[in-house]
Amino acid sequence: MRDWDLERGEFLSQIDVASHFLQLFDGFPDVYVFVKNRAGETLFCSSQLPRNHGFQTLDEMLGKTDQELTPGPLAEKYLADDAEIYRTGKPLPPQLEICIDPIGLPDWYRTCKYPVKNRLGEVIGIMGTFQLASSDIGSDFSLGGLEPARQLLRQDLLRFPEIEQLARSCHCSARHFQRQFLATFGTSPRTYWMKLRIREACQRLTSSSSSIAHISEELGFFDQSSFTKHFRKHTGQTPADYRKHRRIAMRRSSSSGSNIDE
Questions:
Q1: What structural domains does the chain harbor?
Q2: Which Pfam families is this protein grouped with (predicted)?
Q3: Of the candidates 25, 58, 28, which has an alpha carbon nearest to the alpha carbon of residue 42?
Q4: pLDDT tens-digit series, residues 7-18
Q5: Helices 239-261/224-235 angle, 10° precision
Q6: Which member of 48, 114, 234, 256 has the lowest number of beta carbons within 10 Å of its beta carbon?
Q7: What is the pLDDT of residues 45-85, one digit of tens each?
Q8: Whole-number Cα distances in Å, 109 to 7, 17, 65, 119
């Protein structure tokens, strides 16, 4: 009888780890993969990921940690996830969380994170994938038939639809709809809707000069205090801090571009 464990080990030992498997993800838009060592330093990633952080090549991203690649509060969330994996030695359940998108804005991604173990079973790093959750990727089948409800949630950021209405759009019962939504997106319909509102707020804070109070009113929050509370809960920053940090980053990016042109 053939020893498949032995044959798999021999096969893997011949692979150039810098290529092959990671290339599988290059054919999927808005899907990224990363591998970090125990120190949190980037060792491997899909070819598109460096551009999300302002780099042109993987070499520029090698060795970078979450603290260097993302805003403080987001990095803290990633570090907490890493600590949980190192503590348990087990993958994290799929979740919906903020990551940086290709234009430097935070967006909602469905993430999966796993331990990387050596031959002794010790966790020596972390690998994971994240896929854009707010764009129309894949087919309705890949979303478990929930695309009609997702479209309803995106169409009106001022009023949360009734669960029964969302369920009817997907031709299922309210109970089945809520179970399926949670299993697919890792969060409830109402929380998903709130995340969409916060995402829109991030875009307006970055692209417009409107006051925070005006943006709060436009997006239907009770008052600026309520808006700030929800914004901080989902991003780790106040709207004012977020706008300040984004403007600083944009000025740096503009300055770098000017230097390159020169």
A1: 10-132 (3.30.450.20), 141-237 (1.10.10.60)
A2: HTH_18, PAS_4
A3: 58
A4: 988 887 887 766
A5: 60
A6: 256
A7: 988 888 777 787 888 999 999 988 886 667 888 999 999 99
A8: 36, 26, 19, 31
Is the pLDDT at 103 greater than 70? The verdict is no
Give the 3-state secondary structure of residue 112: strand
Q: In this structure, what token pair is assigned to residue 181?
A: 């939504």
- pTM, rounded to two decimals: 0.57
**Joined tokens for residue 70:** 């993302």
Beta strands in the chain (DSSP E): 31-37, 42-45, 92-100, 106-117, 123-132
Residue with tokens 């409107």: 210
**Distance between CA atoms of 91 and 102, rounded to whole angstroms?**
26
Which pLDDT tens digit goes with each residue over 217-260?
Answer: 999 999 999 999 999 888 778 999 888 877 776 665 555 455 54
Answer for the pair 53, 30: CB distance below 8 angstroms, yes or no: no
Q: What is the crossing angle of helices 147-155 and 189-207, to 10°?
A: 50
Residue 188, both tokens? 């409830």
